[in-house]
What does this fold into?
Amino acid sequence: MKLRRPPPKTERESVVALIDVTFFLLIFFMMVGRLDATAPFAVLPPHGQTGKDLPGGGLTLSVAADGNLALDGAPLTAEALPAMIKQRLSATPDALVRINSDRTTPLRIILSLVNRLEDAGAKDVAIIVSPEVQ
It folds into this structure.
C-alpha cells in the first residue's frame, strides 16, 4: 500500500509587512516634506559677501555690546545720531554708512540703527561681518 503525503498547505501571504512599509513611507515623506509657508511669488534671498574689501570713504558707525555708539571713532548718543548723520551726509549724500557691531549685539538694536540711518538720509548701509573661523 502506497501512502500519499498530503499536499503541502500554502500559507496565505501576510499583508502586515506591506502595511508597515506603507506607514514607514508615509512618515518619511511627512518628515522630509516642506511644511513651512511658501511665498506666492519668487523670492531670491540675498548673498552675504565676505572676504571682499569695502570701498573706502564713507562713515563707520561702531556699536558696542552694551549699545554704546561711536561715529568714525567719536562717541555719541543714540539721540544725537540722526542729526550727526544728516550733517555728515550733507557734504556727500551718496556716502556708504558701515555698521561695525560687536557680535553679541542683539539684532533688534542693529535693525533699529539701520532704520534711523535710512530716516536720516543714508542711501547705502552695510553691516560689517567677519567670516566664521573653522
